[in-house]
Structure formats: C-alpha cells, structure tokens
C-alpha cells in the first residue's frame, strides 16, 4: 500500500519542501474549531486527504473513529462507503486494516504495487477522485535519486475536480527532467459512496491538458 501511495506521498513531500506544508499533523491543524477533534489523542491527518486512526489496544476487531465535520463528509478507504462528518463511527480494525478515512473533495494519485522504488517504469497512474466537494492536487515528479530538482529538474501536473460539473481536469505538465515519462496511461476512478468505486475511464496523457467528464458513470 505504501508503494501504491508513493505518488501521493512524494507529492506531499514536495509540498513540505517548496511550500512549508506538513505531511503528518494533529487534528488541531485542520479542525481547530472542533472541540471533539481537539480531544483526539491518536488520530492525525496524513496530507490533506487522509485521516488515520491508529489501533492502540490489543485484540480488537472494530475501532471507534471520530470523523470531524467537513464539506461532503468522508469515505472509508477500504470500502468506499460514505461517512457523514461530525460523528463517531465504528470501523473494521481487523488484522492489516488500520481505520483510514479519505476526505470528500480529495484527489489521490496511486501508482503500481511495487517491491522497491522504480520497479515499474510504465508510468501508469490511477487518479482516485473522492466526490462531494471541489478538489485540487498537484502531482510532483523528479529524478528521485539526486538533488537536481534544486536546479529546476522537476515537473508538476495540476489536477482539479469540479464537483458541480462532475468533471476532472488534468492540466498541462509544467517543467521537465532527464528520464521523465512523457506519455502515460491514467485511470480515473470516481468514488461517490453510492456504489463504491464507480467504473473508471482510462486515457493517455502526453503533457497537454485533458478534461474528463464523469457525470452519469
């Protein structure tokens, strides 16, 4: 799972480097006005999309998770089911399934399952869109093995989800670096809570802007 999330994690690490963001943070940083969120001892945000609720007791099969109020609510990462914000929910905490929520209005880029970084060089990518609110994500890439990004050897791809139009826009690539994958297959998956993960669209992206309508899918 960690390797599949590498495009998300690497892009968030770039936000830390270039924009002083914070990858792992307590709920007070995102929900300062919510007293119940402030009372959580173990829950934390992982980037803008994920709420993590670690299981800190042995022998449990479910775990109580507080989902703070947020536009559009939340989604269970494992099932795709929708969860309203502002309440406590019991989630599956069986072996290998840490309770994990995704905020509505999130775009999560996923790569292939790998055993080590760079094992798959196809560039295939999934953009998983969690409906319920507008969303933005900046996909960041560089050579991954050096500091050449400090001299400008990097690229970003802006992605925007328009909730009212039910449309994803993948913007033009900005920048370049040696060995950059210039053409890649992208699978767009919409999660809306009504039917889990909806049928996907697959497209080829070559660096020019694309609009992907998802309404009615």
Explain this structure to me?
It is a single chain. The chain is mainly beta. The chain has 2 helices and 17 strands. The chain has helices spanning 6-19, 35-38; strands spanning 24-26, 44-46, 50-52, 62-67, 74-76, 82-83, 87-92, 100-103, 106-110, 125-130, 135-142, 154-162, 167-170, 174-176, 184-191, 201-205, 210-213. Helix content is 8%, strand content 38%. The model has no long low-confidence stretch (mean pLDDT 92). Strand 5 and strand 6 (82-83) form a beta hairpin. The protein has 2 domains: 18-103, Sandwich (Immunoglobulin-like); 106-213, Golgi alpha-mannosidase II (Immunoglobulin-like), CATH 2.60.40.1180. The strands form 4 sheets. Strands 1-2-3-8-5-6 form a 6-stranded antiparallel sheet, with no helix packed on it. Strands 11, 12, 13, 14 and 17 form a 5-stranded antiparallel sheet that branches. It has a 4-stranded mixed sheet with strand order 9-10-15-16.
What is the overall silhouette? globular
| β-sheet strand percentage | 35-45%
Tell me the radius of gyration: 18 Å
H/I helix tally: 2
| Main sheet properties | 6 strands, antiparallel
How many strands in all? Answer: 17
Could you name the CATH topology of the largest domain? Immunoglobulin-like
Chain-wise SSE layout:
Elements lengths: L5 H14 L4 E3 L8 H4 L5 E3 L3 E3 L9 E6 L6 E3 L5 E2 L3 E6 L7 E4 L2 E5 L14 E6 L4 E8 L11 E9 L4 E4 L3 E3 L7 E8 L9 E5 L4 E4 L4
Parallel strand pairs: 10-15
Antiparallel strand pairs: 1-2, 2-3, 3-8, 4-7, 5-6, 5-8, 9-10, 11-12, 12-13, 12-14, 13-17, 15-16
